[in-house]
Amino acid sequence: MLSIIQAAGWPIWPLILCSILAVALILERLFQLQTNKVFPPKVMEQAMEATRRGFPSEESLHQLESAGLLGPVLASGLRCLQKNPQASDEDVKTSMEMSGRIAAHHLERYLPTLGTIASVAPLLGLLGTVVGMIEIFGASTPAANQPAQLAHGISVALYNTAFGLIVAIPTLMFWRYFRGIADRHLLALEVSAERFARHVVQLRN
């Protein structure tokens, strides 16, 4: 591996940094976008059952606020009523929508960075290709023939092109995969929040 890095020359180092960053972000998103971390089991049923028995206690609200990403969205509507018992139904929904935007931000966290790496890696590979071609043309002089330098220029060009694609292709695939998961979770959050908001409205009436 070290010999490949040496043959590829200095342009490969930005690609190596991109690959390390991409792997770290992919592992982080694989962990954070798990369904049970976004929607802890039975959190919706527990929240609805707690409100049927009256306004939840402070301890129950704290537990709900720490329950994944859905819990804080549901708790925000109850917090709105706690601060202002006369709040309108629209105020409750608005409070939950604001929390939903925060949850959406957490779902999409680091996805722009992954997309950027997927876009930049082929360009960095192309940069390495250009550097290799410059070395090749620099070695092709009428005065002297330097096969070693020609071989080095070719290796720089090919290794960087290949490594740029090796980094970009899986990163792009994971970006699309995480994008789909985030969109599905966001839709499920919206449906759950709307259902809970209607439940709270019915209890108030």
Automatic annotation (TrEMBL):
Pfam families: MotA_ExbB
Main location class: membrane
Topology term for the membrane: Multi-pass membrane protein
Domain MotA/TolQ/ExbB proton channel: 70-189
Keywords from the UniProt entry: Cell membrane, Membrane, Protein transport, Transmembrane, Transmembrane helix, Transport
Transmembrane segments: 12-31, 110-134, 154-175
UniProt subcellular location: Cell membrane; Membrane
Family to which this protein belongs: Belongs to the exbB/tolQ family.
Protein name as annotated: MotA/TolQ/ExbB proton channel family protein
Organism: Limnohabitans lacus
